[in-house]
Inverse folding.
């Protein structure tokens, strides 16, 4: 096994400027709690790293199987593996993973990623495959989500009928269709590559399938969204990327991500967001009786678990 030197590290994690397969070969067997991959999709896109993103289908799939094999090897029993890709590639890759791991979910993440194409349906979701090594995940605490409410009056958009007063004050169960992940288009993220995933998405995956102190792995670092989510929530992390400039720059200006993550945590695991509670009060909409305690608690307690202390940077 060859030794590699990380190009950048913090007290919790390190990234290697290296090819994913070479890097993965240096990771010990069954040491990773959560493995995540967002590879290039072979769509002929241009990457800063200059990779060829337009190879024959069979070559692309053979390449994916090489790093997936390594990821499966490094996963602990009970560890979770997530693969983000287009449905077209998730179909054969999911079938391959099924031979090695246990299928949990195909999560559809509602994001439009292409213009409508003639004689086809409008491509409007990415597939997030979720597999586990062994029968069941060692760690599983999915977010609970706030009830979707009208942005004007704060009223529920869905009719919960007679169940309204029995609803869990911590929010509704996470489903396998995610419609609340925003595209990364905000001006402050513009300099980040078009391929960067939303911090909200990576926070949801990281907090669902790992605990503080767990080891999170991502062989396709990109702009470092997985590493940032792991770092700010106290997970250890490792990964690779062919061109790490964006990751290093992002870790040197982490405040925007930290503030963003605080906001994300403040708006999950509760039945109504603060903004919706305010709208409901203004518009005289009574709260479900089960929610009264949570409403009082909101005024005084912080629901956010994000690490606010300064992190130590070394590279
Ligand atoms: C879709 S992007 C990942 C984006 C990332 N999830 C984020 O949120 O910023 C895929 C990344 O894989 C990197 N990549 C492509 N081939 C690679 C290889 N063989 N080894 C390591 N990284 C590679 C590309 O440079 C690109 O940054």
């Amino acid at each position: 096994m060859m030794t590699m030197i990380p190009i950048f590290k913090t007290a919790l994690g390190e990234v290697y400027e290296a090819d994913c397969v070479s890097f993965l070969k240096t990771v010990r067997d069954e040491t990773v709690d959560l493995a995540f991959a967002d590879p290039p999709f072979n769509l002929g896109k241009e990457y800063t790293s200059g990779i060829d993103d337009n190879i024959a289908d069979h070559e692309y799939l053979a390449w994916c199987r090489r790093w997936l094999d390594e990821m499966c090897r490094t996963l602990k029993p009970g560890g979770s593996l997530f693969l983000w890709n287009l449905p077209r590639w998730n179909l054969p890759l999911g079938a391959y993973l099924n031979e090695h791991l246990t299928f949990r979910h195909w999560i559809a993440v509602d994001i439009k990623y292409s213009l409508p194409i003639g004689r086809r349906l409008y491509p409007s979701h990415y597939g997030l495959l979720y597999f586990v090594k062994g029968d069941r995940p060692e760690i599983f605490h999915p977010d609970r989500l706030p009830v979707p409410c009208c942005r004007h009056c704060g009223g529920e958009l869905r009719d919960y009928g007679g169940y309204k007063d029995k609803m869990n004050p911590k929010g509704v169960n996470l489903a396998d269709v995610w419609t609340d992940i925003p595209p990364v288009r905000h001006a402050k993220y513009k300099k980040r590559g078009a391929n960067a995933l939303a911090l909200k998405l990576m926070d949801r995956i990281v907090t669902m399938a790992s605990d503080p102190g767990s080891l999170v792995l991502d062989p396709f670092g990109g702009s470092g969204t997985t590493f940032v989510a792991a770092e700010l929530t106290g997970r250890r992390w490792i990964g690779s990327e062919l061109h790490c400039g964006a990751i290093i720059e992002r870790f040197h200006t982490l405040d925007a991500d930290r503030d963003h993550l605080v906001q994300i945590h403040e708006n999950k695991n509760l039945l109504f967001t603060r903004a919706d509670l305010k709208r409901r009060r203004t518009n005289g909409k009574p709260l479900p009786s089960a929610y009264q305690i949570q409403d009082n608690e909101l005024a005084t307690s912080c629901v956010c678990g994000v690490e606010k202390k300064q992190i130590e940077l070394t590279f």
